[in-house]
Design brief:
alpha+beta, 434 Repressor (Amino-terminal Domain), Umud Fragment, subunit A, nine-stranded mixed sheet, 6 helices, about 25% helix, globular
Length: about 200
């Protein structure tokens, strides 16, 4: 089995279409088709990381370096917040809802944020949960929790010539450009709100 076949196998096992998977990692359906046919030799590291997190497998398994499907890992309890402001400590004190359990080991300083709008559909809708790691190194194209123009939001953040482009997944939201940007975390998973009721 090659990497393309493994991506296709995991996509189908997770009930995703090529178009849905493309939206999740920020590429067109045609790019997913090329990945699955093995026509792309050097996939971006950020795309491999996003796919690994989505499918809950190691990058080595995804790239067919190892063949053993990962065993169930230990769980991690993280805080669920209704909003975010200034930093994690202040947000925890003001917006803590409850602790939730994720069935895998997560990095330190990981938290969950309840979504209040539909800007990131189909990845995240109103009430859904973004799992966010505050310990990360930004790479262009990552989906991040950011502050710009005094507004906290989750967007796909791409480096541009004169700053950054902020892209919502929902096509009804325009692409924004900014130079003034502060990062607070990277979205490492998206969960449906019903998973924690």
């Amino acid at each position: 089995m090659n990497m393309g076949e493994r991506i296709k196998q995991l996509r189908i096992a997770n009930g995703l279409t090529q178009e849905e998977l493309g939206k999740y990692i920020g590429v067109q359906k045609a790019a997913i088709r090329k990945y699955e046919k093995g026509e792309v030799q050097n996939m971006k590291r950020s795309s491999i990381e996003i796919l690994s997190n989505l499918f809950k497998v190691s990058p080595s398994y995804l790239m067919c370096i190892e063949d053993e499907y990962p065993k169930e890992q230990s769980s991690t309890s993280i805080p669920l917040l209704s909003d975010f402001k200034e930093n994690l400590k202040i947000s925890f004190n003001q917006f803590f809802i409850k602790n939730i359990t994720i069935n895998e080991l997560l990095p330190n300083n990981t938290f969950a944020l309840q979504i209040k709008d539909n800007s990131m559909l189909p990845l995240l809708g109103i009430g859904d949960i973004a799992i966010i790691s505050a310990d990360f190194k930004y790479e262009s194209g990552q989906t991040c929790l950011i502050l710009t123009n005094n507004i906290y939001m989750i967007r796909k953040v791409t480096k541009a010539k004169d700053g950054f482009e902020l892209q919502a997944m929902n096509p009804y939201y325009p692409i924004e450009k900014t130079k003034d940007l502060e990062f607070f975390g990277k979205v490492i998973r998206a969960e449906n709100q019903s998973a924690f009721k």
